[in-house]
Design goal:
Blueprint lengths: L11 H28 L5 H16 L3
Helix pairs in contact: 1-2
């Protein structure tokens, strides 16, 4: 279920903070994905894409 966005960050610092935290979360997903791939070579990028999509939607939706 997707969160409903009630307000949009208007300040430069607030918007930049959202981008930074989202970028860090996506970067962490890549590290997890490639670690899983080392342990199980049959791992596909589909799970990575799903994790990234969920994190981007969650982090960008301000409630």
């Amino acid at each position: 279920m997707m969160k409903e966005q009630n307000n949009i960050p208007t300040g430069k610092v607030e918007r930049a903070g959202k981008f930074v935290t989202t970028g860090l979360k996506v970067g962490t997903n890549y590290i997890k994905h490639y670690t899983r791939k080392l342990l199980d070579p049959s791992t596909t990028k589909e799970e990575l894409h799903q994790d990234n999509a969920e994190d981007i939607i969650t982090k960008r939706s301000v409630t």
